[in-house]
Automatic annotation (TrEMBL):
Residues 8-349 form the FAD-binding domain. Keywords: Monooxygenase, Oxidoreductase. SUPFAM superfamilies: FAD/NAD(P)-binding domain. Coiled coil: none annotated. This is NAD(P)/FAD-dependent oxidoreductase.
Length: 398
């Protein structure tokens, strides 16, 4: 029999990477995380949600209480048109805990602190360029000339995954979604509290999401249609003052709080995310030999789904369970069998949302009509399968 694995290389220090390493440690496997960037991601990235299913997966490896303190409850989503008229409202199914709205920088900071506390190493400046497999293990080769060897290699390196390409040179890559994104936190806003709900408005020229708390603080994000992709680095070449002025002008004809929230934002507080990219609904190959994918490198739903981080967390925990109980080849097969149907169903259910955000004037009118019809017909309990997903860490994997 192939022996159980003892060590792992985790490529990618975003969200899925540190969580994978901590889940593996709980499964009795020593893991080291290798991150391409020379520094941490503190101060980078916008807001994101951790759904109830993601929170449950965090609880399975003792991380839930690490994340909860800085999460803001989000009990529903209200869809609006450019005039602030309600199109539809989506709440959590009955009995399901609220989603948690977090800032990516806070989540990174908490994960890195906890990873260090648990004695797991994260090495920066390690950009993977190749991986060579032998009968006894796999060796990662990095751009700085260094190497690292372990029993297996896990690709948690996002939608532009190098590991995915090493596994399958013909693997699909991300495509530009037609939008560039921005966001910020604000204080002292005059916009009324949204009562723990995220409001999302299909403006005449751009898409706005915002949530205002009872203390007059809040967050906003904008998805701006743009003809060509623009990385965060490219977008940051334009001064934040100019971006804020442009974003404000895009909502000049809208009757929503967009301009008040944007105009209240200090330039230094603007978060420039850059292009929104979409992965194809199906990545054909998740593993080969001693390499396997986890998180966005294997499955990346539209950011509009609110499930990207949560699905990554789930997959990290399930992969660790499989590797705990099975030889790696059987573990990889079991992991894919457990995860692929669920993630592909979520992607299928949500893949149309970014297209609606990038639609032109006629498309927005059609989408608004569809939303009103859907609101009358939709039943929250039909979406319970997305949120009410539980991982039993102690259950054996066969």
């Amino acid at each position: 029999m192939t022996p159980r694995i003892r060590t792992a290389l985790v490529i990618g220090g975003g969200i899925a990477g540190p969580i994978s390493a901590m889940a593996l440690q709980q499964a009795g496997i020593e893991a080291t995380v290798y991150e391409a960037y020379a520094d941490t991601a503190e101060g980078k990235g916008g807001g994101m949600t951790i759904a109830p299913n993601g929170q449950d997966a965090l609880d399975a490896i003792g991380l839930g209480d690490v994340i909860r303190p800085f999460g803001v409850p989000m009990t529903g989503i209200v869809m609006q048109d450019w005039a602030g008229r309600r199109l539809a409202e989506f709440g959590n199914p009955p009995g399901v805990a609220p989603m948690q709205l977090v800032w990516r920088t806070d989540l990174y900071g908490a994960l890195y602190t906890e990873t260090e506390r648990r004695g797991i190493r994260i090495e920066h400046g390690k950009r993977l360029v190749d991986a060579v497999e032998t009968a006894d293990g796999i060796t990662a080769h990095f751009a700085d000339g260094s190497q690292a060897t372990a029993d297996i290699l896990i690709g948690a390196d996002g939608i532009r995954s190098t590991v995915r390409t090493l596994i399958d040179p013909d693997a699909p890559g991300p495509s530009y979604g037609g939008l560039i994104s921005f966001g910020a936190q604000v204080t002292g806003t005059t916009t009324p509290s949204t009562r723990s709900k995220m409001n999302m408005s299909f403006g005449k020229q751009a898409f706005l999401g915002y949530q205002v708390l009872d203390d007059a603080s809040g967050i906003w994000f904008v998805n701006l249609p743009h003809p060509t992709p623009m990385s965060a680095a490219e977008a940051k070449k334009t001064p934040s003052e100019e971006w804020l002025k442009l974003l404000s002008s895009k909502f000049a004809d809208d009757r929503t709080p967009a301009r008040e929230l944007i105009d209240r934002t200090a330039p230094e507080d603007l978060i420039v995310v850059g292009s929104m990219e979409n992965m194809p609904p199906r990545v054909p190959v998740w593993s080969r030999g001693r390499m396997v994918l986890v998180g966005d490198s294997a499955h990346a739903p539209s950011s509009s789904s609110g499930q990207g981080a949560s699905l990554s967390i789930e997959s990290a925990v399930e992969l660790a369970r499989c590797l705990r109980d099975l030889p790696y080849q059987e573990a990889f097969a079991a992991y894919e069998r457990l995860r692929r149907p669920r993630v592909e169903r979520v992607i299928k259910e949500t893949t149309h949302k970014n297209s609606a955000k990038a639609a032109g004037p006629v498309g927005r009118v059609v989408f608004a009509l569809m939303m009103r019809i859907f609101d009358k017909l939709a039943k929250p309990e039909k979406m319970a399968w997305v949120f009410d997903h539980r991982i039993d860490w102690d259950a054996p994997v066969n």
